[in-house]
Amino acid sequence: MKSYKANTLLEALEILASEPKAKIIAGGTDLIIELRDNNKDIDCLVDITSIDELKEVRKINDEYIIGGATPFSDILKYNFPKNMKGFVNALSQIGSPQIRNRGTIGGNIANASTTADSAPVLLALDARIGIESIRYKKEIMLSDFYNKSNNDLDNGIITYIKFKEPNVNSFISFEKLGYRKSLAISKLSISTNITINEKFEIEEVYVASGAIGKYPMREHEAEKMLLKRFLDKNTIELGIDTLREVISTRLAGRSSLEYKLSAIEYIFGRCLEESISYFKRCNND
Q: How is the chain split into domains, by residue range?
């Protein structure tokens, strides 16, 4: 198998354009498994770990921009505000410390796994991703990337992930269930991004899930049910009931349905309860 180490983004893109079966490698935590399975669609590796512009965490005005080849451990060194607790929690629960040291946020997205821990919280942040090839350069919503049937990067590289800093009246939460707290592939995960007004009403809400569909996705029906309601236990119950109905339809006939209905009630409820606790603490302060 051929391998190249690219020192610039342009160099990496040129190699990808000239090698139709080339694959990007940065952390390699998923790709190595593919190679061990003798994936015949890969005959060339392009190492992008030396491209500094793909390994930055920056804040420009009100937006965070994270390079696609940034390891999770490097992202976690950044001092994100307290109301982004769910984002930090999600990344902190990805695999082991060794995996977080090597695994990259762009690779986690590009793999397009429904169980990717970073996906729900990035969807809840309404994130966008930059994709670049030798032929094009574009920015798309992360939700649109996951909605595509094959998530084909078309010989491109995810160069960055971008999202706006949540305002002071917002809170990001994340919960997952796995066989173990960490080191585990998520059996189900949920992230919420809730903004309230001075009356404790939900002014804006994003709900995103992992491992309860073909790909990570926004849960629009739950969002509609929560919007403009007072954030209390009754609203939590309404939100849970709505999401259970959505999942019942989506996973009808699946053997895992009953487990996932029970699990979603627990972790979605925890996300919403944590949001209530956070906002109450803020009001008391």
A: 2-164, 171-284
Give, in order, the Cα–Cα distances in Å from 92 to each of 97, 100, 143, 193. 9, 8, 22, 18
Which CATH superfamily does the domain covering 171-284 fall into? CO dehydrogenase flavoprotein, C-terminal domain (3.30.390.50)
- What is the pLDDT, as a whole number, of residue 183? 45
DSSP assignment of 121-142? HHHHTT-EEEEE-SS-EEEEEH
Query: CA 10 to CA 32: how far, in whole Å?
Result: 24
- Contact between 61 and 165 under an 8 Å Cβ cutoff? The reply is no
Query: What are the structure tokens assigned to 68, written together?
Result: 């696609």
166-216: per-residue pLDDT in tens? 999 999 999 998 655 444 445 799 999 999 999 999 999 999 999 998 899
Helix axes 233-250, 257-284, angle to 10 degrees: 150
Q: Which residue has the tokens 């695994």?
A: 103
Q: Which CATH number fits domain 2-164: 3.40.50.300, 3.20.20.70, 3.30.465.10, 3.30.70.100?
A: 3.30.465.10
Listed as ranges, residues in the chain with pLDDT below 70 are: 29-40, 149-152, 178-186
Distance in angstroms (rounded) separating the CA atoms of residues 20 and 230? 54
What's the half-sphere exposure (Cβ side, CA atoms, 13 Å) at 5?
Answer: 2
Beta carbons of 267 and 176 less than 8 angstroms apart? yes
What per-residue confidence (pLDDT) applies to 184? Answer: 45
